[in-house]
Amino acid sequence: MQIGVVSERRTTRQIRVGDVAVGGGAPITVQSMTITKTADVEGTLQQIYALAAAGCDIVRCTCNETEAAEGLAQIVPRSPVPIIADIHHQYRMALAAMEAGVHGLRLNPGNIRRPEHIKAVAAEAKDRNVPIRIGVNGGSLDPALYERFGGVTPEAMVESARQELAYFDEVGFDLVKISVKASSVPLMVEAYRMLSEATDHPLHLGVTEAGPPPAGLVKATAGIATLLLEGIGDTIRYSLTADPVEEARAGRQLLEALGLRERKNVDLIACPSCGRAEVDVIDVAQRAMAAFGDRQIPLQVAVMGCVVNGPGEAREADLGIAAGNKRGHLFIKGRNVAVVPEAEMVEQLVEWAEFIHEHGVEAAMARADTAKAEREAAKDRAQLLDAKGDDANHADEKIVEIRKTVNRT
Ligand code: SF4
User: Fold this and answer.
1) What angle do CA 65, 74, 28 make, to 5 degrees?
2) CA 104, 106, 110 angle in degrees (round to 5)?
3) pTM of the model
């Protein structure tokens, strides 16, 4: 069941970055950026492939020197996803990147400021049908705007985008998407809200310099998710101080969690563990996470600490495993299907997930001895309840004592 928490998406124009549509109702896309030297063609391609495998739809590479542009000429034809060149300071690098065949550009209006340079790039992009992102960044805002608005404000960032758009208009170029990123979440949220009122160009969302996880993940999610839930945003990037594959995974997972993209990889859920746990849930969940990696198995898989409550609590999951008496109880949609040794819990979980993915739930149920699995689970459950008791606080006995005490007075 889909629960409609996302506001209606704001209508934007559509542009194409290579073969990926952005805006105009297209699925929201995930972006990331390589951290290799772009001149290192093999190293950069390796990272691009890893990003694509993690769910990244579009990859950006810096184009900061001639060698980088030359590298792009070799990277673009071998990349599995469209490539955008990131340009700061030197407008000539934008021209060189287009010569290299990139599918899009990102220009920073804060550090490429001469109108004739901006217009030269836009005119060339128009001729070549290459889209440009106007990438306003709170940290590198045009000093004149900083002065005029008394600092980095949402108004100043939106004005920076407007000025750039006006230069593009002069040469009749409109294949544009826009970002107004800041490292402050409230600031970027406000700037994007304002921008979405002012333009119908597609918007690229991000919290810049969010920092290392977990704080960086929290900040980026807070900003991006807030806007997506308001229907704002057409493409997203997590800017983390971490392996960019983590950025791509986070972006993908956010969109899947909000129901904005189809699930691609395993959605691993796990109980938080408690005193009833029969196994180290954190360890099993982490090992399961690593074992599934980026395998494209679009199932929800549960790791639960005890067979007493696990299968019931995770009955909505496609598949799960719960621990009990040194054994793992596998269940499909809450129904016990097999009992495996504790040491094989992760391995068996992956094996069953692959089987379900390939052959479907019915075939998995058909190969299971559910009667035996249910019997064994009931046995372990009963033993655990006997050992720990349904009533760990001995409430019944205490109630008797309390009543005696109250009646005495
Ligand atoms: S499934 Fe069991 S171990 Fe996990 S939180 Fe629930 S009661 Fe505790």
Assistant:
1) 90
2) 160
3) 0.87
